[in-house]
Amino acid sequence: MALAGNPNAGKTTLFNQLTGARQHVGNYPGITVDHKEGFFHHKNQKITLTDLPGTYSMTAYSAEELVTRDYLVNERPQVVINIVDASNLERNLYLTCQLLELGVPLVIALNMMDVAKDRGIEIKAEVLEKLLQVPVVPIIARSGFGREELLDACIRLTTKEQQWNPRDISYGEDLDTTLTSLVAKIEETALLRDCYPARYTAIKYLENDEQILEKGQQADPDTARILEEIVAGTSAHTQKTFDVYPEALIADHRYGYIKSILRQGVITHTFDTDRLYTSDKIDKVLTNRLVGPAIMLLILFGVYQFTFSWSELPVIWLENVFGWLGNQVDNRLPDGLLKSMIISGVIDGVGGVLGFVPLIMFMFFSIAILEDSGYLARVAFMMDRVFRIFGLHGSSVMPFIVSGGIAGGCAVPGVMATRTLRSPKERMATLLTVPFMNCGAKLPVLALLIGAFFSDNKARYMFLFTMLAWVVALVAAKILRSTVLRGAPTPFVMELPPYRFPTLRGLLIHTWERTYQYIKKAGTVILGISILLWALMTFPGLPDGKTAFFEQQREALMATATTAVAAEIQATDGELSEQAAILSQQIAQINNAENEARLQNSIAGKFGSSLEPLTRLAGFEWRTNIALIGGFAAKEVIVSTLGTAYSMGETNDGESESLGKRLKNDNAWNRVVAVAALVFIMFYAPCFVTVVCIAKESSWKWAFFSITFNTVFAFIMAVVIYQVGMFFNLG
Amino acid sequence: MLRKRGKNNGCCFADKVRNCLSRGRCKGLIGPLSERATTGRVKVCKVTGDRKICARMASMGLYPGVEADVICSETGQRCLLKVNGGTISLDADVSDNILVTSL
Q1: Cβ–Cβ below 8 Å for B60 and A495
Q2: ipTM over 0.90
């Protein structure tokens, strides 16, 4: 069996009701892009049910319509349940007409009978059944009312003959005459008869259906040419006489057919149907051109606050869990490569990824509220005007906000939030530019460099760099939409679902499904890449001679200490005396120098050094290069790697100021280099978690494009800033 | 082909002023939906423009002869239209091609 119907008619709700499958149901129009299958039993019969995408018609105007039609003609389900919104019967029966014309074995599920009743609409299902000559069952998908009756009707239909029975609808004298000649020709040559009824093919020719026209040309070019000539003649005639194309006349007659049925006692209005409902009254305020954007900003700010403030505590808990795990491994395993790999590669890498889980859960929960309540569609409607200028869609706003539009987001959920976008090119442009936003991981880097070089106006510079992120992301989107993702903007025609109170169960299911997808997708590839990055920064290690050199230095230093001081240092805990503190600091300096030498000798270090001739153009020396390479793992790593590379050892928030001072005093750094580095860090390749997500959401081709495009784009900007800055001696 | 905006559509200057003040709608005159300054009930007279868009509009219930409520109107910009119980949002290009008359 298959489920077909208009978007928001309640298809997926019914699908879940019948199969028990936990699949996402959104108020956002047509959230199910691909059809999905579920299994269930009814009266000892196993039933396979397919949830088809929501469509308004069966002509090849959109991907959803193609998926639906192809499934019906190729898979030939035994029963098609056409779910119809009883509160909007006329429009919903437009698709029913086309299903009848195709001849599929149909059962109509008259959904939302309760909503229709509330709106003063009374529908006589038995009269509709008699007039349409197909079973009509009133149901309420949300509550499960009418479920058994619907399934009984479906089972009864499967026991009958399985011949498809196409229905003929009259399209007026002019078109009917043309249809007769088209049908005669199609039947004579059996054009596409293995898939479609002859009259259906003829109607699609008149409707200028691109897929059918193409199929016709491939199957029988001569017949196709004759059919196209007949249609061209009719089309010219309708344009001359009615000033419309044939498909407009067809639509007109379909609605005429629907009205003729509804007026035969199917539908009665108990009170004024023209009145505006609560949902429309809310829309008058929430989409008002002055008040609407202000309310939207408040709501988005609330979402941002909720996501990033409320998730703070669980994130810290998770960090503590992974920190505890790291300590356990540190205490129990002997020093060596295995321990280093488990702590730095596995626990830090996977822990870093899983650390995002609470953040992602809260973000998806917020989005689920906006989506299920119907507000997200309104946000898209309001933002479309601004985003359209940059070749994006109104729906792009949410991914941008989540990724750090208000500094401190995360690109990973941002990339995943692009799923709500329907147009592939606009979605891709959004997906590739959301990593430009200032995510939470970039903030420590921004804080470090701004604090060190622009300490007088920290807040102003933070705001400036947040604004810069927006400008660059939108300009980059415009560049992409004008080059590799060139294409006409998608017309913003969208049905806005009525406002509804989301159910807690629904919200929790949606949140968990998406979060689980993240854990499953990110958790597998990320482990491998994390270990690879660890290896790049660890191997081949220091030559024996150099290790011995540092060991000798430490031993020589310890030899100068008294027995009491040496014991104090080896005890590792407790307060150190002044002498022991000085000695400990000197040993730390040797350790840091060893770390720096090891890092320089690693594959990543050698790579950083080899890049220096090029990166010098932007003012970056080899140590900065290593930090930037490390930043590909996660942007926070930049601070700790800079710490190691500049012989400062591990740094944390408290120590980052001292790292800042060190950078400020270093000859290789000045204000111009800092700005160039900041710009490069903000806009170069996204972290590998984001890259993996981009690959999963699109393809590895686009993931690599994202790495290359962003890095080249960021490097050009950094070079321009450095060269211009140094030319004017601003450093 | 998209229709060009800015046509007079039979509205006199005083009507336009009244439109700006939301006090008049040039009743009975046919004009693009995008040029409506006020909310209220309209009747669709014609849907022009790209063939695919026209057909999509029809499948969404917006076709000549149908009556609709303009819920949110931004002259020359997008609008929200209530048709047969469903709310449809349209951008400037599409609403430019829907000719309506006030009821």
Answers
A1: yes
A2: no
Whether B64 is in a domain gets the answer yes
Instruction: Among A69, A91, A249, A278, pick the best mutation site for testing chain B contact (most B Cβ within 10 A).
Output: A91
Residues A718 and A582 in one domain: yes
Contacts of A280 in chain B (CB under 8 A): 69, 71, 82, 87
Cis, peptide link before residue A540, omega less than 30° from 0: yes
The CATH number given to whatever domain includes residue A150 is 3.40.50.300
Residues of B in contact with A87 (CB under 8 A): 85
Domain presence at residue B67: yes
A646 plus A610 within the same structural domain: yes
A280 with B87: Cβ contact below 8 A:
yes
How many angstroms separate the CA atoms of A634 and A614, rounded?
23
Report the number of distinct structural domains present in chain A. 4
Q: Domain of A417? A: 291-506
What is the H or E stretch that residue A726 is in? helix A700-727
Of the candidates A59, A289, A495, the beta carbon closest to that of B88 is on: A495
> Residues in chain A whose beta carbon is closer than 8 A to a beta carbon of chain B?
56-57, 59, 61-62, 85, 87-88, 90-91, 94-95, 119, 207-208, 243, 245, 247-248, 251-252, 255, 274, 276, 279-280, 283-284, 287-289, 377, 381, 384-385, 388, 491-498
Host H or E run for residue B86: strand B86-90
Three-state secondary structure readout of A240-284:
HHCCCCHHHHHHHHHHHHHHHHHCCCCEEECCCCCCCCHHHHHHH
Same domain, A526 and A402: no
The residue ranges of chain A whose pLDDT is under 70 are 21-35, 161-162, 271-276, 304, 308, 349, 352-353, 356, 406-409, 420, 422, 517-518, 520-526, 529-530, 572-574, 644-658, 731
| Predicted pLDDT at B28 | 61
Residues A53 and A179 placed together within one structural domain of the fold: no
- At how many degrees (to 10) do helices A443-453 and A656-665 cross? 50
**One domain, residues A46 and A186:** no
Identify the domain containing residue B84 by its residue range. 29-102
Domain of B43, CATH number, reads 2.30.30.90
Q: Could B61 and A251 be called an inter-chain contact, meaning their C-beta atoms sit closer than 8 Å?
A: no
Indicate if A653 and A549 belong to the same structural domain.
Answer: yes
Q: A187 burial class (0-12, 13-18, 19+ CB within 10 angstroms)? A: middle
Would the CB atoms of B72 and A288 count as touching at under 8 Å?
yes
pLDDT tens digit at each of 103 positions of chain B: 344 444 444 445 555 555 544 444 445 678 888 887 677 889 999 888 888 888 889 889 898 889 998 887 666 677 888 888 788 988 888 888 899 998 8
Partner residue opposite A491 with nearest CB, options B53, B63, B66: B53
Residues A382 and A438 in one domain: yes
Nearest residue in A to B49, CA atom: A244
Q: Are residues A186 and A317 in the same domain?
A: no
Interface contact B39, partner A, CB < 8 A? yes
Q: What's the token pair of residue A547?
A: 């290790």
Q: Compute the distance between CA of residue A387 and CA of residue A385 in angstroms, rounded to an integer.
A: 6
Question: What CATH number is attached to the domain comprising A224?
Answer: 1.10.287.1770
Q: At A557, which amino acid appears? A: L
- The reply to whether residue B78 touches residue A248, judged by beta carbons under 8 angstroms, is no
Q: Tell me the pTM.
A: 0.71
